[in-house]
Amino acid sequence: MLIATLYASRPMKSLRRLEKIHREYGDARSAEKVALVRALDRAHLPSARAVLRLHEILLYLRAFPDDPAVLHAVERALTRFGARRDLVRFRGALAGSGIAGAELRYRFFWPMARWLAGRWPERLDYADELEPPLRAALPLLAGALEAEAIRRSERGTRSILDRLRGTRTAATWVVGRIGALPADEAVRESIHDAIDAPYVLAPERGAPSRTLAHRAVGPVCFSTSPPRRDRPNLARALGVPPVAVRRVSTVEGRRLIDLAREAMVTRNRDLDAFAWGNPRDVRLVEDAPGLAFVLVGVAPERRLPLPAVHGWLTLRNGVPTGYVQSDTLLYTSEIAFNTFETYRGTDAAHVFARVLAVARHLLGARSFSIEPYQLGHGNEEGLSSGAWWFYAHLGFVPKDAAVLRLHASERRRMRARAGHRSSPAVLERLATSHLYWNESPRAPALLPLVPQLGLRLPAAGRDPEEVAEQARRRFGVRSFSGWTRAERAAWVRLAPFLLALGPAPREGVIAAVRGKGAHDEDLSMEGWRKIRRQVSRGIMRAEETSWPT
After folding, report:
1. pLDDT given at position 460
2. Measured between alpha carbons, how far is 256 from 108 in angstroms, rounded to an integer?
3. Does residue 125 share a domain with residue 41?
4. What is the DSSP string of 421-486?
5. pLDDT tens-digit profile of 253-272?
6. Across the chain, what does the average pLDDT equal?
7. Is 406 part of any domain?
8. Is residue 495 a contact partner of residue 471, using CB atoms and an 8 Å limit?
9. How far apart are CA 312 and CA 359, in angstroms?
10. Rounded to 5 degrees, what angle do the CA atoms 351, 422, 355 make?
11. 61-79 pLDDT per residue, tens
12. Which domain holds residue 487?
């Protein structure tokens, strides 16, 4: 008790001590952490920065607790965090931090704005600065008489919105009116995102926060040693399947997608795979002790034409610690791997290896690629973290000749001088092309670059329905009776590519296309694999590039 009182009387000294030892483990450390957490739970910190530092330490310990005593003390402190006196005092400075009790500020995209307006309509509003695009859109969202008045009015945008919104907030009214427009979802999205208004989500119990985001999966795994710093052997790691995989119910799928969206929105990030997540295509993967992944498939109307996209939420003892996006086509996945800042410096390489293993066993991937942006090309965070070398040290290699030469040159410098680090300029040049890793070097399966595919197909620019009809005749589809609306829409989207395939087994083509409109996009991946040679040749003809089959 005397020690706890002493800690509480010196809050900054206690905070620095907890900051120093929070990643150290052992019986003595556990008892000291409990005392420090309890003391700091009652303390009043002198600055917003100090409050944020304590918050991040508590989040880390919630994901990597020493034992039940540490877990209990941390959970209690996090539950009470939004009501701390120092947080209330520095609430303005902590806006946008994602901490419970502080407001969120972000230019949310359409699906996220619609989700927030539906869940917290009284708390979502616009920030003070209302910009011209919002004013220009108001006549489109109002009735005919109101629209004419708005065009002629000299009132300010806020004043007009106050007249129109009734009992709703201005933001909730605008989002609702966009959602009610007689247009398809793509048009609504375009209108909303062109407005590009700054939102603010006021704090409320149950509203998104990093503080309380959690989903219990399996028993808690307590940490007994510091994070691993060694590098895994990817070939061995891929041979180990995940412990358990289950498809969840639609209700649970919605909850897990909400958790993923909460993890992103509270960090001023967005991921289409979560924003357009399909609650009927969600899997919970339990892997190494304490480690789990939530795999979220994309709604049929938002899927990419060829690759299957999945958003992954990484959980450590139920706490979101990072996210992944995988784009899988045939036997290759392009991986975007991210660890949230609070948890960096832990066993990221081993978690990444488990991502590849799960993709191998669930999605059928045998080779993997990392796109330039993830490596630091046009991405300051990727450059400063040395992302390129993170993957290169794990065995990923470039295919571009110039990058290969630069890579060899940097390796020679490292061997000649211990401690050599690539300069930002060199890292930027290294990051200009993909990195690749293959399960079998003798049978590579590299993901083709498909973004420009649509402009290079022979049917580009023609009437979509006409092209779809031509593809129907080519592959002997007598009618679309029994096809869902999403499956028929997938046929129209893919018809230009189908015509570029040349002769291909009808069953594989139909399976690939119908799978794009099915609840489970795995069916589409299986269909593409049945006609993999035709798919690779069709892409090569359009892209004018070489791709091993």
Report:
1. 75
2. 20
3. no
4. ---HHHHHHHTTS-EEEES-TTS--PPP--TTHHHHSTTTTS-HHHHHHHHHHHTT----TT--HH
5. 999 999 999 999 999 999 99
6. 90
7. no
8. yes
9. 11
10. 15
11. 999 999 999 999 999 999 9
12. 453-543
Distance (Å, rounded) from C-alpha 405 to C-alpha 371?
A: 19
SS (H, E, C) 201-251: ECCCCCCCCCCCCCCCCCCCCCCCCCCCCCCCCHHHHHCCCCCEEEECCHH
Separation between Cα atoms, residue 237 and residue 173, nearest integer Å: 51
CB 44 within 8 A of CB 66: no
Which residues sit opposite 308 in a β-bridge? Answer: 328
d(CA 120, CA 261): 14
The domain total for the chain is 4
And the tokens for 174? 């605008």
| Those residues with Cβ within 8 angstroms of residue 460's Cβ, 6 or more apart along the chain or in another chain | 454, 496
Are 4 and 38 a contacting pair, CB within 8 Å? yes
Q: Please, is 262 exposed, middle or buried when counting C-beta atoms within 10 Å of its C-beta (0-12, 13-18, 19+)?
A: buried
Q: Which of 201, 218, 243 is the last residue of a domain?
A: 201
Distance CA 503, CA 500 (A): 9
Name which of 128, 144, 129, 139 is nearest 174 in CA terms.
Answer: 139
Which of 89, 124, 144 terminates a domain? The answer is: 89
- Residue 137, amino acid: A
